[in-house]
Amino acid sequence: MNMFCYQCQEAAKGTGCTIKGVCGKTDDVANLQDLLVFVIKGISVYNREAVKKEIEEPGVDSFIINGLFATVTNTNFDRNVFIELVSKGLEIRNRLRKKIENAGGIEKKGNLHESATWNPSSAEEYDEKAASVGVMSTENEDIRSLRELITYGLKGMAAYTEHAMNLGYNDKSIHEFIQDTLVALTRDDLSAEELTSLVLETGNFGVKAMALLDKANTSAYGNPELTKVRTGVRNKPGILISGHDLKDIEELLKQTEGTGVDVYTHSEMLPAHYYPAFKKYSHFTGNYGSSWWKQKEDFETFNGPVLFTTNCIVPPSKKATYRERVYTTGSAGFEEFPHIPPRKEGGEKDFSQIIEHAKKCDPPVEIENGEIVGGFAHAQVFALADKVVDAVKSGAIKKFFVMAGCDGRMKDREYYTDFAGKLPEDTIILTAGCAKYRYNKLPLGDIGGIPRVLDAGQCNDSYSLAVIALKLKEIFKLNDINELPIAYNIAWYEQKAVIVLLALLSLGVRNIHLGPTLPAFLSPNVANVLIEKFGIGGITDVEEDLKMFLS
Ligand code: SF4
Ligand code: SF3
Questions:
Q1: 93-106 average pLDDT score
Q2: φ, ψ at 303 (rounded to 5°)
Q3: 237 and 204, same structural domain?
Q4: DSSP state of 80
Q5: Cis? peptide before 312, omega within 30° of 0
Q6: pLDDT tens, residue by residue, 371-387
Q7: pLDDT band at residue 107 using 50, 70 and 90 as cut-offs
Q8: Which atom of ligand 2 is nearest to the CA of 492?
Q9: Domain containing residue 346: CATH number
Q10: Closest ligand 2 atom to the C-alpha of 458?
């Protein structure tokens, strides 16, 4: 075995990638990602102590957030980035350790975890160490499963926290929780029960992180509103922006204004169109293409440069002509793609290189010409609340189906297109995340003017769906969120979906069905706990599931 990774839904054979990632991640990069998480645990050990002693350093919280985010599936494939992050992490950790020693030493019983003491003499030792600190370093299958479930939740939480921080919103308690939890994951004395409580606590903080990001996004750009997004093209060169970071798209839109270059969104950037602040840009043309895994086709015909602000990157094939036109920024990275450096304090990122590149490119080839309707985050749904409540009371709407989450490339995800298409006409789909691309272009119509697919936005906007459910519970004067006529048929792929799931569980939502397969990182015992305690279920086939959900 060269590596072991089972953090996403496409883990090889449904158990784990051992030679190379199905995602394209090489074994050395997979192991270096594990090593980075290991070093971040060591930093957390000292940083929590430094905070107690009031001798903390600036920049440690954001280093941890950024490092965890870089290890999310399809975010960063660049070996050099991970070597640099591990080196920088060790420097931070050692500086903190020195400070603490000077201030009287660490107050800890027993030996420090190896992540706090490992001291390589050079980067040459990283690969060897990296191979021994990953998932399989925990022997007990159930403890391993719980530890990884928590770790993946933290990775997702870090991603959402980073977006909020980019907009100037921060919450110290989230960092404290992440770091305390990372320290807890180094302890061998925690029982399965204690780790299970930590899973739920991770969900609580997931809600906090998503609420923080919601506040950051809506304060900066206004509340998403009902929007028709064009899917056709114009006769000008364009830049295609993907990923989840709204600060990046804001700066790109500003810098492209008046340059003759259009901006289009791809995949999870589609919901940027729903924000009032971005509507003033006449060159913010529309959405091009589809979900992340279709990028190999979409990028070929787009003709212009592509900017990844976060996941999901698919490594291009050798023959791909677009490989010369892709850029990354933020946590995203791929060895041969030029990387746009971070903004300096108070400044903006400089996208001029991409803009100049775009000017030399042909306009995109039109691959469709229609529109996608979205913008149904909590404020827009609340504005329609009377209409929605009347439709429920009159029986025009019988049931809501939350079909949020991720999309993926495996054939079995056709299930979701089929499921959406076969839902009775008196049902509404509530969605968020790239899962929607499986059905957001289907002609599903509306119920008395309410579209049958209500898209709240990106995966993090699943928070909006929970806020909407809580509001409906209040309007219908119910005691329990689970008494609402809402069914949950959620698709997952990467670790952001893990934190969304844990957040929903912590809000009391039960009987969530998760597909297309249950996570490989759930051991049979841990899966049983989730089934028994929370009613988590998988999916079978469309007909059977429809019967089950509608019964
Ligand atoms: Fe495999 Fe997913 Fe890990 Fe990539 S992220 S190596 S596909 S389990
Ligand atoms: Fe999609 Fe990667 Fe998860 Fe943000 S873009 S939901 S998979």
A1: 94
A2: 75, -30
A3: no
A4: H
A5: yes
A6: 999 999 999 999 999 99
A7: confident
A8: 3
A9: 3.40.50.2030
A10: 4
Residue-range definition of the domain harbouring residue 489:
144-220+379-551
Quick check: CB of 223 below 6 Å from ligand 2? no
Question: What spacing in Å lies between the alpha carbon of 406 and ligand 2's midpoint?
Answer: 5
Any atom of ligand 1 within 6 Å of the Cβ of 11: yes
Residues 215 and 256 in one domain: no
Our answer on whether the CB atom of 457 is closer than 6 Å to any ligand 2 atom is no
Residues 6 or more apart from 356 whose CB is under 8 A from it? Answer: none
For the Cβ of 10 lying below 6 angstroms from any atom of ligand 1, the answer is yes
Count Cβ neighbours within 10 Å for each residue of 144-155 and write b for 16 or more, e otherwise: bbbbbbbbbbbb
Name which residue sits closest to atom 6 of ligand 1, judged by CA.
Answer: 21
Query: Which residues, other chains included, contact 225 with Cβ-Cβ below 8 Å and sequence gap of 6+?
Result: 274, 276, 375, 379, 380
| DSSP type of residue 112 | P
pLDDT at 109 exceeding the cut of 70: no
Q: Is 403 found in the same domain as 551?
A: yes
Q: Hey, whose CA ends up nearest to atom 7 of ligand 2?
A: 406
**In the chain, how many domains are there?**
3
Both 305 and 395 in one domain: the answer is no
Q: How far apart are CA 14 and CA 12, in angstroms?
A: 5
Q: Tell whether 215 and 231 lie within a shared domain.
A: no
- The alpha carbon of 375 and the centre of ligand 1 are apart by a number of angstroms equal to 31
Mean pLDDT, to the nearest integer, of 526-545? 97
Q: Which of 137, 156, 175 is the last residue of a domain?
A: 137
Verify that 254 and 209 share a domain, yes or no: no
Are 461 and 492 in a shared domain?
yes
Percent of the chain at pLDDT above 90? 98
Mutate which of 2, 3, 8 for ligand 1? The one with the most ligand atoms within 8 Å of its CB, which is 8
For the chain, the average pLDDT equals 97
- Residue 372 within any structural domain of the chain: no
Q: Are residues 94 and 186 in the same domain?
A: no
In a domain, 127, yes or no: yes
Listed residue (354, 462, 331) closest to 403, CA to CA: 462
